[in-house]
Amino acid sequence: MRDWFKSGAPWIWLNAGAAAISLIMVFGLIALIAVRGLSHFWPSPILETTVHHTDGTEERVLGELRNTEVVPVAVVAAMGIDFPEDQELVTRYLIQLGNRDLTGRDFAWFVGDLMDEWQFPDDALVLERTEWGNFYGYLLRVKEGDQVVGEGEAAWEELFPRVARAGDLRRQIHRIERFDIGAINTQMERIRLDERSLRARGETDPAAFERLRERRAELDQQYAVLEAERAELYERIARDFLVAESMDGREVTIPIANVVRAARPNTMSFFEKLGHYFDKFGEFVGGFPREANTEGGIFPAIFGTVMMVLLMSVVVTPLGVLAAIYLREYAKQGPFVQTIRISVNNLAGVPSIVFGVFGLGFFVYWVGGSIDDLFYPERLPAPTFGTPGLMWASLTLALLTLPVVIVATEEGLTRIPRSVREGSLALGATKAETLWRVIVPMAAPAMMTGLILAVARAAGEVAPLMLVGVVKLAPNLPVDGNFPFLHLERKFMHLGFHIYDVGFQSPNVEAARPLVYATALMLVFIIIVLNLTAIAIRNRLREKAKAVAE
After folding, report:
1. HSE-up of 377 (CA within 13 Å, CB side)?
2. Would you give the distance in Å from CA 453 to the centre of its chain?
3. For labelling alongside 462, which of 113, 209, 246, 343 has CA 20 to 30 A away?
4. Which pLDDT score, from 0 to 100, does residue 381 have?
5. What is the chain's Cα-based Rg?
6. Which of 83, 408, 142, 348 is nearest to 262 (CA)?
7. Where are the domains of the chain?
8. What is the DSSP string of 285-339?
9. pLDDT tens for residues 109-149?
10. Strand partners, 486
């Protein structure tokens, strides 16, 4: 046994076991997030039952089962429910009732002992709406204006095509409002600023103002055409209605224009459920959020996260590499350089929120304010770059991850044998030629390792971004069709902050919980994709470095 310990085999097995446990925990966590998040998009059956309350009243319940808990009897004893003395546990169910505009509640817990047998009626209807969440009930009729076009079973044949048509009309309205009219408003704002700039400079030439007035008149005509087209679309989308019965017996008239998706889950086949699943998941990945971010998609957050990480990588890579090259290859080694290295290492341990405060004070208020004073005086006092935005968030995270890139690059430079440098110099190459043609290509894999670590950290940071550019809901993406196309001054959405906002600031916690898991899974997936891309580049550079060494 003593010889076995001396051989080092126990420590090898211990390390292997620790690595295996770590991998199991990581993959288990990802699997948990995936199951909790992705299962949200699968259409659940709609149950109907009657709950007998302790005060003698009865309540008809219609909705989707969201959670089941087995709790001690004492937890529900305060409700005045009498249980047998030998009963210790009771089952309660969380049911999504929807109809928040009618009852003021979306979810409710019900004790299983007070519920009748569950039924799953074929004609149960679930509507996903643009506001007020889901509606659960029974479809009675479909109307076009005041005329009934479908009733009973025929109403279903009219409902689904009209919901699809309303979705197409909403997308057309969205395109006109967000892109076409948005572009005109941007040009009108530029004309206003140009006029203000001319007056600030004391311009007296009437021709300059006349050209701006002509351009404004032309844009007004274009706006009138788009406004007429939008009014026509609103008129078309507002013609259709459905009448449904809620569980409390009320007849409710719902404009189909407010219906995003209609389903009859209890009669759907497997392939119909699969199509419904991919439709909802596609909206989640490629759509815009609504209902305080508890419904709709997360595309702006995905776009903002990827854009910020790419900009951060473009900034931090050359800065970190050049700093490491100077410290290792050019700076005279001594106490001063050693102090710089210690400072860089300590900088890696500074809390991220400190970088956020620094970015807010230095980048936003000082640098951004100076840019506004020099280049955008006509817009003042409204700030352009003197306010949190995408560029300042990227620069702040570049500073946050700079020590990682410097340390990784310097380690890569240190591992290159001295004989390689001496051989290059002996062949007549200068120090700069040796550095850029021999040393840097051989150290490129280490540089990419630093970038991989920087991307992994930056993509998940939230605290500093709350101060330098991230918002709950950004009306426009940082990229659009208006010059200069990439708007670095705009605020943006981020997956990490979206998780925080939906999970802790949502007015409807139960509805938001599945989206927290789904958004977290998307963030992990994006980090993995970015890292795999960087790893592939690093492996290719490593192969080139081996070829150079041979």
Report:
1. 7
2. 21
3. 343
4. 85
5. 31
6. 142
7. 47-120, 138-267, 299-549
8. HHS-EETTTTEE--HHHHHHHHHHHHHHHHHHHHHHHHHHHIIIIISPPSHHHHH
9. 888 888 889 999 998 999 999 888 899 999 999 999 889 88
10. 479
CB 244 within 8 A of CB 135: yes
Which tokens is 508 given?
């409807």
The answer to whether the peptide bond before residue 377 is cis (omega within 30 degrees of 0) is no
What one-letter code names the amino acid at 10? P
| Distance in angstroms (rounded) separating the CA atoms of residues 419 and 443 | 15
Q: Collapse the DSSP code of 51 into the 3-class scheme (helix H, G, I; strand E, B; otherwise coil) and give the result.
A: strand
Which of 65, 46, 36, 42 lies closest to 274, judged by CA? 42
DSSP element (H, E) containing 200: helix 181-200
What letter does residue 256 receive in the DSSP assignment? Answer: G
CA separation for the pair 240, 146 (Å, rounded) = 9
Strand partners, 245: 138, 251
For 3, 325, 333, 336, 346, the CA distances from 339, given in Å and listed in that order, are 45, 16, 10, 5, 10
Amino acid, single-letter form, for residue 151: E
- Token pair listed for 506: 């949502």
The Cα–Cα gap between 206 and 320 comes to 53
CA–CA distance, 294 with 536 (Å, rounded to integer): 36
C-alpha angle 238/239/245, rounded to 5°? 95
Question: What are the residues facing 147 on neighbouring strands?
Answer: 144
DSSP string, 379-410: GTTS-SSSS--HHHHHHHHHHHHHHHHHHHHH
Rounded Cα distance between 316 and 400, Å, is 9
* Segment (H or E) for 109: strand 107-111
Which of the given ranges, 199-203, 307-311, 471-475, 482-486, has the highest pLDDT on average?
307-311
Helix (H, G, I), strand (E, B) or coil at 45: coil
The pLDDT score that the predictor gives to residue 109 is 87
Residue type, 159: L
Q: DSSP code of 46?
A: P
Q: Rounded distance, CA 486 to CA 492, Å?
A: 12
Q: pLDDT tens across 23-76, in order?
A: 999 899 899 999 988 888 999 999 999 988 877 788 899 999 998 988 887 777
Closest Cα partner for 115 from 86, 75, 76, 85? 76
- List the CATH code of the domain at 47-120: 2.30.30
For range 424-450, the mean pLDDT: 83
